[in-house]
Amino acid sequence: MLKVENINVYYDQIHVLKNVSFEVRRGELVALLGSNGAGKTTTLRTLSGLIRPRTGTIQFLDHELTRTPPFKIVSLGLAHSPEGRQIFTQLTILENLRMGAYTRKKSDRLQDDIEWIYSLFPVLKEREKLPAGALSGGEQQMLAIGRALMSKPRLLLLDEPSLGLAPLMVGKIFEVIRTLKRNGITILLVEQNAHEALRIADRAYVLETGFIKLEGKAADLIQSPEIQKAYLGG
Amino acid sequence: MSYSSEYWIQQFFNGLGLGSIYALTAVGYTLVYGILRLINFAHGDLLMISAYTVASLIGFHLLPYPLAVAAALVFVALIGLTIERLAYRPLRGKPEETTLVTSLAVSILIQNLALMILSPQPRAFSLPSFFSATIRMGSVSFPLINIIILLITAILLWMLTLMIKKTKIGIAMRASAENLQAALLMGVNLNSIVRTAFVIGSVLAAVAGILMAGRYGRIDPFMGFVPGLKAFVAAVIGGIGSIHGAAVGGLILGFGEILFVAMLPPDLSAFKDIFVFLALILMLLVKPSGLFGRPADRRV
Amino acid sequence: MEPAPAIRKWTDRASAKWLLLAAVIVLLAIANFTLSTYYLRIINLVGVNIILVVSLSLTNGFAGIFSLGHAGFMAVGAYTTALLTYPVQRKPLLFPNMPEWLQFVELPFVAALLIGGLLAVLCSLLIGICVLKLHGHYLAVSTLGFTVIVNILAANLTDFTRGSSGISGLPPFTDMWWVYAIAAITIYVVWRLLHSAYGRAMLAIREDDLAAEAMGVGIVKHKLLSFCTGAFFAAIGGSLYGHLIMSINPNMFSYSMAFGLVLMLVIGGSGSIAGAILGAVLLTLIPELLLNKLERGIELFGVRLPQMYGLSQVLMSLALIFIIILRPKGLLGK
Fold first, then answer.
1. Which one of B172, B178, B187 has the shortest CB-CB distance to A75?
2. Which residues, other chains included, contact B157 with Cβ-Cβ below 8 Å and sequence gap of 6+?
3. For a FRET experiment, which of A155, C92, C115, C131 has its CA 20 to 30 Å from that of A165?
4. Residue A86's closest chain B neighbor by CA?
């Protein structure tokens, strides 16, 4: 579904992503791991069209994303729940969800989808009319994921959903991600929490200072001594 | 020096009228600034373009008044869109100083184009005669025009608030003003949103221009710059990015200006504009985010 | 291949600089003796604008303070020198309500210039302390506010300024030696400031003021130094301008003037002194020699063109917009 080939991304003169290549197949949950500053968020932002690579291609369902404007990328079916959640604090929860559905046609019935999101995250329904800024960190993360799901994406990008959350909340979030996978949604998950990510992923890539350092099946990687030492405290 | 209550009532409505004009212009500023973080210095000059369009159409007996006004609104909206497309869009993402200078350049360009095409002499301007009626309430009589200005402003701002609250594009504008990158991730088409903001802002400015011209009775090519600046001050005082903040700021400024003139001896009244800028600097020092703005904004 | 780096490499060699200086002095001397008053006036105008734009480059270009207040400081300087050097015999006629002590003062030009400059420094200190912690648009509008305030004061403190009619008949002190000597001083001062520890701190602040602050650089202090130095020379430039044209009125120092200076800086190149000089030269000569004539309506190829006041401003604003979009650093900017 998604095929990234040899992209090179620069911030001004700084070479942030170096010949990065990876792919995500339909129905998979692929994890993108790495420590801070490795370039994970940059990768996702490049996929969404917020940054353009200097060289390389990004193929998504037969479209070349490097030449597609960001709003078109979303309507092609690529949704992104960004780093730090970035929900619209001034808008209500309901309005946030409606913003997620921005690219959908008027004729679509959003209410069913909104109800489904509420079934995943019941607490959002209670606070429906409240400004999103009143939510706790974990609740905001749920809203961010729900918002991204509202566009009925073919591919869901999740940027560090567990960051800054209490352990109980982390567990909940990963439960939800598992549920989404079971529902057949293709997911590219960026995480610093390698342990949890590898447990639910099919395959994973490890990014280090802009390079893809390791790749493989999640089950294999979880055993690898390198990973154990670098990311799993082993 | 004590004035009758009649005087103060008249000044009250005066303040409402002037404040409404500033409010309309300030809201236009804040709509664009909220999304693009761009101060469009040329915004004030739209007032002038609008007034001259109406004056010319009426003067040459080309259209009846209501159609002339409609034509002016359309024309000014087109000008606003043109400015956006030619001068501001190429500069998206560039540092602030560049857009500042360009914005100032566009303003000076418009003023001097007007100077070239029209005469530097002020021209008379009048609204249809029913606007200059006066009404009597008991022993007090005051000009109707301020009430009309207030009504028009209230209706327009009410419509705008509805749009911002209920329509899809209105919510998108609010979202973009808060967090543009996240809005882009929702699939918001930046160009559409910006164009919408410019059109709405320009139409509001166009209305303000006609009302202002009617209130003062005359127009000249440079009439828009200082009111434009004051409207910007109003938007800052109200909290830049907040629509009702801009409206409130406009009213405050309008009242303040009228009060200033009313309470001070006549030879000091020319200094009223100084008070406006001092108010700006004071506000920026004390609460840069304005009355209704969000303090987290590092932009200041 | 741009010509700019080639020119810069050449001017960077020290011996080239001295040669250039000598050539300029010789040319000026020749010009002084041979050219008519009309052309002399233009050359002096170029020099005054060099002073103004180079000092502006210190504030706007290097310190990153987008200031539209330069015109206000010009006014401070111009009105101060006008009042202090006006011949005492004619003062009471022109300024009947002026306080006594001022009516009997008539100072030599140097003294008046310095006093004007110092007054501007005082103003800039006061304003700077208030507004220099602001950024971008807010700073620009605040400084513009200062210019507008000075305008209003000049137009309304009629006892001192004769209001909108302005003051005419100023003694014509400005001549080529004054202008270009001060221009040289301005260039030297700005150049020295930039190549000092202070200059490096300024660059750090411009690049990223949070980081600079973390490293212990006192931001407002450094910005104040640029701002006040700029104001000093702006005032002097304004004084020279006033005594060149021999009359001043509030409209001369309005936002139009502020914009005109920014225009010269941006087109010439805001990151370099050479750019500032180029901008001043080009954008004084072109309007004076060409555009103003067009404005008044001339005969071109036998066709009588109409008066088009405002044309030079229109063309220059367009030029600015083009340059900003196509070559944002200006002609010689870095």
1. B187
2. B23, B24, B27, B243, B247
3. A155
4. B182
Contacts of residue B174 in chain A, CB cutoff 8 Å?
Answer: 88, 90-91
Q: In this predicted model, what pLDDT tens digit does every residue of B7-44 receive, in sequence order?
A: 888 888 889 999 999 999 999 999 998 888 888 889 99
B229 in a domain, yes or no? no
Q: What is the pLDDT of residues C224-241, one digit of tens each?
A: 889 999 999 999 999 999
User: Could you list the residue range(s) of the whole structural domain that residue A40 is in?
Assistant: 2-86+157-231
Distance (Å, whole) CA A64 – CA A76? 11
Taking 70 as the pLDDT cut, the residues of chain B under it are: 1-3, 129-130, 138-140, 294-300
- The predicted-structure confidence for B119-162, as pLDDT tens digits, reads as follows 777 777 877 766 777 777 766 677 788 888 999 999 999 999 99
Q: How many domains does chain B have?
A: 1
**Total number of domains constituting chain A:** 1
Q: What is the ipTM of this complex?
A: 0.89
Q: Which of B186, B244, B294 has the most A C-beta neighbours within 10 Å, making it the best mutation to test the interface with A?
A: B186
Beta bridge partners, A29, equal A187
Give dist(CA A65, CA B64) in Å, integer. 52
Residues in contact with C45: Cβ distance below 8 Å, sequence separation at least 6, in sequence order: C241, C244, C284, C288
- With CB atoms and an 8 Å threshold, state whether B100 touches C140: yes
- Among B104, B106, B264, B285, the strongest candidate for a mutation testing the C interface, having the largest count of C CBs within 10 A, is B104
Asked whether residue A183 is domain-assigned, the answer is yes
Q: Cβ of A71 and B172 within 8 Å?
A: no
**Which DSSP letter does residue C252 get?**
G
CB B277 within 8 A of CB C148: yes
Establish if A107 belongs to a structural domain: no
- Interface touch C141/B106, C-beta < 8 Å: no
Range of the domain at B193: 23-223
> What was the pLDDT predicted at B108?
92
> Does B205 fall in a domain?
yes
CA nearest to B175 within chain A: A88
**Domain assignment present for A137:** no
